[in-house]
Amino acid sequence: MDKRLLIVEDDPGLQSQMRWCFSDNIEVTVASDRESALTSLRRFEPQVVTLDLGLPPDPGGATEGFALLEDIVRLAPTTKVVVVTGREDRENAVKAIGMGASDFYQKPLDGDILTFVVNRAFRLAELELENRELAQNRNGTSIKGIVAASPQMLSLCRMVEKVAPADVTTLIIGETGTGKELLARAIHDMSHRADKTFSAINCAAIPENLLESELFGYEKGAFTGATQSKKGKKGKIEMANGGTLFLDEIGDMPMALQAKLLRFLQERVIDRVGSVNPVQVDVRVVCATHRNVEDLVASGEFREDLYYRISEITLDVPSVRERDGDAMVIAQSLLKSLGKQLDRPQLSFTEDAAQAIQSYSWPGNVREMINKIKRATIMAEGKRVCASDLQLRTDQATLDGNVLNLRQVREEAERTAINHALQTSNYNMAQAARLLGITRPTLYNLTDKYKIETSPVVSDV
Ligand SMILES: Nc1ncnc2c1ncn2[C@@H]1O[C@H](COP(=O)(O)OP(=O)(O)OP(=O)(O)O)[C@@H](O)[C@H]1O
């Protein structure tokens, strides 16, 4: 920091004495009255001002000095003002501090003490500047894996940073692909449990009859006849002991298991399947769902008491279309990382591609972006990804002169919807079927009929 000091002093003798107190690394300017002091303040922007309160036209009083102090605090609030008063003038010194001066110095002049006080003011100004710069630079987020620039997402990230160290049960809600699991991991990584296990289970992906033993484990001999039961096995809850348990798609948890989970959350003990000896477990629970849990409670599909237990804190992750400017920022970052991964590091978006990215509604959020940009990275010719490489067309086939009949329109619509559901659900057939409102076998029939790929083009990012 270039140090600049303004000395406001009307006595020419004192002015030059004060000048001599400061080493060469401080640029010193002197002013004798309020007007010239304000001119210097504007021109040199000193970090520190020493201000003699007794200025003309009231050199015996302090009115002009106080008026100037008020001006400085108003015009340059970060400037540190050291008020210089007479020996017996404690009262005015205290008043000046109350008005915003950072320190005071009492005459007669003692070079060592004045230098000490002024250097301390410079140090304070420097620390405050560093602090402001740090605060300003926090326009991104330090959460690993999260690319965000929108105020909506940045404020959510700040919340995550606050929630993480507190051992509260947290519910993360938001549309599919918005980053709920990423945030759950961030909560774990930023908590005091970070060096212990993060154990995740997707309640929608595991058949109901297996979910209980997956979660709670089972005791030796629990399932008569089953070979694996000879040994017994710890469930995900026990495996997370000391760490964090992430229950994804909690809204899909079967009713019977909801009661058992509630008991665990209340008493922090679990009963393995086939066991009568409860096991004490210390885990932090983070849940996520893309479903509206309040609606599920209203329709009787989710226990109200469990809902209150899991949502001590609720984090609502905005969809990509609700984040101002994030679609483009995330797309650029994905193009860079996928380009590197797929050996096409020079790729950039054309203007029409950028336009398409910003106007598309991204119903599958970041996961859909990954799939679309991965495809475009592979398909792009030359060094530019254009809108057609992204395949963001939303226009439906209509009965114009180019369409044969209603069956063709219907098939086209079905094909588009299925592709969309598969990409949105990251090719999870059960989830895609649910999105489409059909059964899994029907979805398989349709993907066979339309020869639609049931797995992504290349492996995940
Ligand atoms: N802000 C982001 N920046 C970069 N990548 C992101 C961001 N948000 C999510 N992702 C990536 O998008 C993909 C989907 O994220 P994640 O699995 O956390 O979403 P989700 O909300 O849990 O989805 P679902 O509800 O379908 O389980 C992951 O590969 C994740 O790394």
From TrEMBL:
Protein name as it appears in the record: PEP-CTERM-box response regulator transcription factor
Any one Pfam family match given in the protein's UniProt record, by short name: AAA_lid_14
InterPro entries, alphabetized: AAA+_ATPase, AAA_lid_NorR, CheY-like_superfamily, Homeodomain-like_sf, HTH_Fis, P-loop_NTPase, PEP-CTERM_resp_reg, Sig_transdc_resp-reg_receiver
Domain Response regulatory: 4-122
Annotated source species: Marinobacter nanhaiticus D15-8W
Residues that bear 4-aspartylphosphate: D52
MF (Gene Ontology): ATP binding; sequence-specific DNA binding
UniProt keyword annotations, A-Z: ATP-binding, Nucleotide-binding, Phosphoprotein, Transcription, Transcription regulation
Gene: prsR
Domain Sigma-54 factor interaction: 146-378
Stored SUPFAM superfamilies: CheY-like (SSF52172), Homeodomain-like (SSF46689), P-loop containing nucleoside triphosphate hydrolases (SSF52540)
Top-level taxonomic group: Bacteria
GO biological process: phosphorelay signal transduction system; regulation of DNA-templated transcription
